[in-house]
Structures are given as C-alpha cells and as structure tokens.
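Q: We require from you a single protein entry containing the residue sequence and its fold in token form, and nothing else.
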Amino acid sequence: MEAIQEVVVEGSDAVVMVEAGNSFAWGTHTLRFDQSERYRVSTGFGSMGHACTGVLGAALANHNKAVAILGDGAMLMNNEVNTAAKYQISAVWIVLNDACYNMCDQGMALLGFEGVDTQIIPKAVFVAIARGMGADGICVQRESELRSALEKAMASTAPFVVDVAIERTQPAPFGPRIQSLVAQGAK
C-alpha cells in the first residue's frame, strides 16, 4: 500500500477506487488523499463489482487514468477489461491476488470458524486474461517489484492489470468490525 500511495496517489491525479472486501479495508486504512473526490468506495451492501467496472466510468468522466484496487474474487466475478481494451480506456486494475475470498476467510477465523476452506479459489493469472482480451499487464511476485510495475501501469496508455501476489495470512485491518459483530451476538 505504501507503493500505491507514492506512485498512484502522490504521483498522479488519477481517481482511485477500492472494491468491497479486504481491498476496501487496506485502501481506507492506509491511503491518504489531499482531494477526497479522487477516492471512491462503495459501502452500500458490500457487493463486489463497483470498482471492477466503475473504474471505466471514472476514467471516461475525468478524461484521465483511473485505478481500481480489488481482490482476485471481485476481478473474477465482474470486470470490464474487454470493454476497456475495445475502447482504449485508460484504466488500471491492481489485483490483490491470494487465491481466496479473504475477507470471508479472515472474518470466519476471527469469529472462531477455523479450518473452513470454502473461500479458497483456484489461482488466476490475470495478466494472461488481460492480454487475451487486448489489454496489457504485469505480474508482481515480490514486494520489491511493485513500485516499477505501478510506474509502468501509470505510464501506459492501454488498459493495464497489475496482478499482485499477496500473502493470504496477512490480516486486513478490519478487526474492529469483527469485534463489533461479536459484541452484537454474531455466531
């Protein structure tokens, strides 16, 4: 998130959108904007898909690059890479890829449901998917590769996917939400 802050937030004037799930927790907890209109979240029902697709509208409305930060589950469910490629919309998807619906997985663990693996999903290679649709992208396997990948994405005029391998066991900063649910009797 530090690299996203420096390269995307501080290094550009792009609109940044975060998806529901752990990406929402990470983005809202760590990113800081001087202009609040540059940051978009959808908290209505926690439904996935807002940033995956809305990033195109943000790029078109602002006549500028727009960036979506989202998880792999949201990217698999609902994306518009194909539309962005068709119309050459300058959108960037930063996919936090851990092969898991991790907000569900981590939330269940915090609620005491250990060993449930229904949230694990097959690992997708989003760069291959993006290139298959006419967009560009880069896979990031190590933290040291992220800054240059983001710089490449932000410099590109083509739709661009940054597929970032993340550690599934790193807890997202949403513990207070779970604690609140427990206090309200969630079981």
